[in-house]
């Protein structure tokens, strides 16, 4: 199977923007477990979970 830009965590889809709301659940003192599961699912779906768990390596300074 050929890799696509969609597999690259640095690739942004057209609807991705700084104000994008990934989940409707706001974190509070009582819902961390549910919030954590929801945000991890949302980030995994967008191939962005690596930024949170540090599995996404930082590109070299001279990388295009």
Number of beta-strand segments: 0
What is the radius of gyration? 14 Å
How many separate helices? 2
Oligomer: single chain
Helical content (DSSP H or I, runs of 4+): 25-40%
Written as H for each helix and E for each strand, in order along the chain, the element string is: HH
Give the CA-CA distance, first to last residue. 23 Å
How would you classify the helix and strand content by structural class?
mainly alpha
Shape: elongated
Describe the biggest sheet?
A: none
Indicate the low-confidence ranges by residue numbers: none
Percent of residues in beta strands?
under 5%
Average pLDDT over all residues: 86
